[in-house]
Amino acid sequence: MKNTLKKAGYNKVQKQMNDVFLQFTAKLVFFIVIMFSFNLFFAGHYTPGGGFVGGLLAAAALILLLIAYDRKTLESMVPIDFRLVITIGLVFAAGIPTLSFLFGTPFFTHQHTYVEIPVFGEVALHSAVLFDIGVFLTVAATALLIIVLVGEADE
Amino acid sequence: MTTNILPLLPIMIPFFAGIIMLFTGQRPLVHRVIATISSLLIIISAIWLVVLVHRNGTIATFLGDWAPPFGISVVIDMAAALLLLTTAIITLFTVIYSFQSIGVEREKFYYYVMVMFMISGVNGAFSTGDIFNMFVFFEVFLLASYVLITLGGTKIQLQEGFKYILVNMISSNFFVLALAYLYSVTGSLNMADIHTKLEGFEGDYSIMSLLAVVFLFVFATKAGVFPLYFWLPGSYYAPPMPVLVLFGALLTKVGIYAIARTYSLFFIDNVEFTHQMLLLLALATIIMGSIGALSYADMKRIIIYNILIAVGIILVGVAMMDKAGMLGAFYYLIHDMIIKAALFMLVGFLIYRTGETNAERLGGLIKIHPITGWMFFIAALSLAGVPPLPGFYGKLFIVQSTFANDNYIAGILVLISSLVVLYSVIRIFISAFWGEDMDFSRLKPVKSDKLLFASIAMVIVSVAFGLAADALYPMFEMAAQSFYDPASYSNYLPEVE
């Protein structure tokens, strides 16, 4: 935002932009969006959703913060190296299907079981969720990395 | 157990190598070691695959344990296995070649990671048995190649990279379009299943001829067939040599492989139209490539136009689609992958050593680099197809097949193109290695032991392939069989009632 203003000819831009409305709403909406992204992620197995959409939405939530504040604030809020997140995501996405080699089954073979958990009752455990976590992390971090890098370019 | 794991190794090893390299961060030395080791591992798994396929026939694994026509299958027949092995050998030597030529800056910015991801995609496209999955693997290696062509960000790279991205994106869109057509016509995406369905179909096939045109449009753009090769000479000229080695040796060949697969499995009815069209375009490609190869003095450009000639020659064999034609096409395909890599490496060495790309400004280099000079000579003869060297067998079978099918013009054009190829490459040899001495003080003192090791090794691989061509004949017969007799490819599917 600061750069956009500078380009538009505003020479004196304060160090911290104070757009109260945007910043306040962003804080609230951030949690709603990120919760919805988790919801989509877990809904993915039987209903529409999944790692890809969830990841995009999580990235969108963080980009909202990036727009409302600036990059430094985002980094202090989420002190993670996105490159590392992409790599970890790839490890999950590629490693989990490969684990099925250990069972002698074809690549990508789905393993699942049901367990009893006191409060929730019967819960299904799927190896597909682990794969989807990989997709989620990779997509979210890639989208964020691209936006941050493009935004960085004009500084 | 091995049938489940082994077919995926050539795809997964480079992928995991890429991930491990990402974890180690920007450390070129570590990347080099990992890239070399993983290339060696791919070679081992590919050799194992060739042996196993030779012994037991086609290996197929069904991802996720889904029943064959519905899930994605990875099918390795002899054709795929041989291509995987060739790809792996080229990868190893290109990685070694990159050590001293690509530059530390590019190495830091994940050059080897992208090479490995690209190899993963190329191997996937060779080994998948599902046409949509083939599209996905095309995208995997194209995305990596977008990075490789622009990595470094020099002006010419960005300019040509943009064209490359645009052309490939458009053709990928048409790929999806063609797949949608195909699915709505046949109701299946498994290539073997589509073949069995079409073979048993009694009705009107005319829509398949339309599909043949759309598929040819897509793959011709990737393979660089006339008239859709326009992007190739410019885009391939831009990236640094090791990238050019990979692109020239592998990427166009994936397009050719895809054409051969689809034209043998899907377009079996209206052959007079589809294969005749392919033949005409192949001949036009040979002619345009010859004109290009003769008209430049720039070493890189001459070899790039030689890619086009080779694409044309292989496709002439594919268009014949009989035993001799496919056998020739396959011999020539493998030969061309190896020899193009060798020639690009040798030309790259000359460019790095002298800083010149124009062959006419060089001269007398044989006094300083005698071994390299004679290796270049052997590579040139091999490219043109002089007998004991491997190009000969491919051309022999292709010409034999064209004459057997009364396509005399095609046969004669292939023979004339050999002369053009020989002339264009020997011209580089004569002006660079013989002739008046250039000013030797202008030579750059580059470290070149690994460059020379890789390029000479590729020439030796090519010569060995030529000498062993007779012993390898049964394997190539198997490989060709899955094209001219597609039923032998599709019989891995269990019988459906």
UniProtKB/TrEMBL annotation, chain A:
One of its GO terms (cellular component) is plasma membrane. Residues 22-144 form the Na+/H+ antiporter MnhB subunit-related protein domain. Keywords: Cell membrane, Membrane, Transmembrane, Transmembrane helix. The chain crosses the membrane at residues 20-43, 49-69, 81-103, 123-150. It is found in: Cell membrane. It is a multi-pass membrane protein. It holds the Pfam family MnhB. Coiled coil: none annotated. The keyword Transmembrane helix applies. InterPro entries: CPA3_antiporter_subunitB, MnhB. Belongs to the CPA3 antiporters (TC 2.A.63) subunit B family. PANTHER family: NA(+)/H(+) ANTIPORTER SUBUNIT B, NA(+)_H(+) ANTIPORTER SUBUNIT B. This is Na(+)/H(+) antiporter subunit B. It comes from Salinicoccus roseus.
